[in-house]
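Office hours follow-up: a student asked to see two folded examples consecutively, so here they are.
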Amino acid sequence: LHCTLEYYQSFKCFMLTDEGSSSGTKLDGQPVAPYQPVALRDGDLIELGLGEDQGAVLRFHSNVNPPDDVELQGGRLRLHMGFDPKETIRQVVKNHQMAAIPACDVFLSYSRRDRDAMHYLRESLVVSGFTVWSDENLEPGSQSWRAVVATAIEKAGCLVMLLSPDAKQSDWVGEELNYGKIHGKRIFTLLLRGDESNAIPLGLTGVQWIDMRAGYEEALEQLLRSLRAYLGQE
């Protein structure tokens, strides 16, 4: 969801809201601040994304314009954070997105620097008959990322964590670990890189982990046996 165009009855005009997009929104050549609705006028030019190659340019037409008797900032009516909006299509879309996230056997937690290893493990799990979810297509740290990841963890049968020095330093991996614990999820841990001193995060010290450093196939078989026993797929 890049942006929203919504009619505000109280102002009798349409307003444009950038929904925290990664590539930004412009209105008549000026950047639009995320999550701050700005009024639209007939004939406005809206730019989405990165221009001609990876975006879109839209011309807005409407028979209603913002009222002239409101206080304008920068020549336009703007609503800043702190404004208490009514429920809008954004919430409807968000609820639909959350409901569309399927239940899965395994939620994969990993550092972005271990992405190649995650891909390899994910394919191995899928080939072995497990359904797997990972956040690789989301923008880490964004508002939508948090909501989608939380829902995916809640719907997962268990968490599999790839441990490494980078994963230990990752705030997002730590949040996934804590959220999984809060919701009583079983957590399986694989030591991919590093050792006990620099790759095991707080909260997993003393937990038995599978060592992938010596041999992938043997470690994978051990993980598959554990997953099948826990998920009742033996």
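And the second, which I mentioned at the end of office hours:
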Amino acid sequence: QIADSDHRLLGDGAAGHDVDRYDRGLGTPAHPLPLATPTGFSDGYQAVVEEILMADSRQGGMTNPRVRSDIVYVDFPNGGAVFSVGSIAWCGALSADGYDNTVARVTGNVLRRFAADGEP
């Protein structure tokens, strides 16, 4: 589990503060590989105002499934790729437990893969 309480250097852990989600309706490419979806955010996290047509009490993380932080990988022609963690707090969780944590391992694996020569 990536967004657990052991990674609370910034807010609610690796999936804290500002969160983003995979959503084809908002422009996410059609071919991403979803890797993880941290959920269970409190009502302190709200759906973005641009997506709300009418204010009501069902826009918080406890009731709105759109309030989540998706981790996705997208590859592109000619070897290009994007790894998105869906949270501004990800970097703050890197150093938890002296960098011996899931966030640091995932980040290291992605960076090693991106730095490697050849095809995926």
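Two things to take away from it. The radius of gyration is 16 Å. The longest strand covers residues 71-75.
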